[in-house]
Specification:
Homodimer. By secondary structure, the protein is of the alpha+beta class. 18% of the residues lie in helices and 38% in strands. Bound molecules: ligand LBFN2T5F.
């Protein structure tokens, strides 16, 4: 049997590298090993691969599975959702699109000026919802630290679930830490049974946060949409900012609004198409 021929589109959301693979009309099983193999190739390298599958619910454009570079799955990816929303809007001619993920429905719409807004849903703050390995009554700051108790390097992160688990450490200068060294250690801390995305956040104004992120399963990235949402809601819960903030990542700014009326978090930002091509047939042969 000949290998299936599968088109990919390479995009990015603020430099968060996104590979879009549309399997709505094809049946191919993507194993973690195959995902890692695709990520290892320079032309198809990604932080997240957004795999579009046939819609499961009426009124949605696709059911989406999201893979990290290491082959693990995530239920949410804000930057990737803007990318697939742009493709769906181009395909349908509409100015909105809705996707289903394992974290729920993600409605998105054209916000003008080349920007797309995604309704990322309501954050969760319960310790078992994040999830954490043991009970914490107050997830605005949990007892977790790196370094000695008397002089920790990082401590007392806020935690939140934005469709995926996030820990946010509040610092005075996001550039003063070796996140490439601290990230892997914190991502896999036993307090996070499903690992976690690790952020360093610096509040710069009542409506401004600077953020660097070590992503679960992907490492340092230029931007992480769900982390920006998690940092924004965590800052508002602590009274550090209001409910509308600009979160500035290495790749650029995202506008985050934590809507009062339904608790949903709206994320607005750009997307970019880079190139397209066909996935290497040899590897797909083993997966078909
Ligand atoms: N970059 C994404 C988040 C990707 C998921 C994450 N690495 C995880 O495993 O939870 C975004 O823009 O939200």
């Amino acid at each position: 049997m000949s290998a299936p021929s599968i088109r990919y589109r390479k995009m990015n959301g603020l430099g968060n590298e996104i590979l879009v693979v549309d399997l709505r009309a094809q049946s191919v099983s993507l194993t973690p090993a195959l995902v890692r193999e695709i990520a290892a190739r320079p032309d198809t390298h990604f932080d997240q691969m957004m795999v579009l599958l046939r819609p499961r619910s009426h009124g949605t454009d696709a059911y989406v599975r999201i893979f990290n570079t290491d082959g693990s799955l995530s239920a949410a990816c804000g930057n990737g959702t803007r990318c697939i929303a742009a493709l769906a809007m181009e395909e349908t001619g509409r100015s909105e699109a809705t996707f289903e993920t394992d974290a729920g429905l993600l409605p998105s719409w054209d916000a003008g000026d080349g920007l797309i807004t995604v309704d990322m849903g309501a954050p969760k703050f319960g310790w078992s919802e994040i999830p954490l390995a043991r009970e914490f009554a107050d997830t605005r700051a949990i007892d977790l630290r790196v370094g000695p108790a008397e002089a920790p390097i990082l401590s007392q992160p806020s935690v939140a679930n934005m469709g995926n688990p996030h820990a946010i450490f509040w610092v005075d200068d996001v550039g003063a830490y070796d996140l490439a060294r601290l990230g892997p250690q914190l991502e896999t801390d036993p307090v996070f049974p499903e690992r976690a995305n690790i952020s360093l956040a610096q509040v710069t104004a009542p409506d401004g946060i600077t953020l660097r992120v070590w992503e679960r399963g992907a490492g340092l990235t230029r931007a992480c949409g769900s982390a920006a949402c998690a940092a924004a809601v965590a800052a508002a819960r602590l009274g550090l900012t209001g409910r509308s903030v600009t979160v500035t990542l290495p790749g650029g700014p995202l506008l985050i609004e934590w809507r009062e009326r339904d608790d949903h978090v709206l994320m607005t930002g750009p997307w970019e198409f880079e190139h397209e091509g066909m996935l290497p047939a040899g590897s797909l042969e083993t997966a078909a």
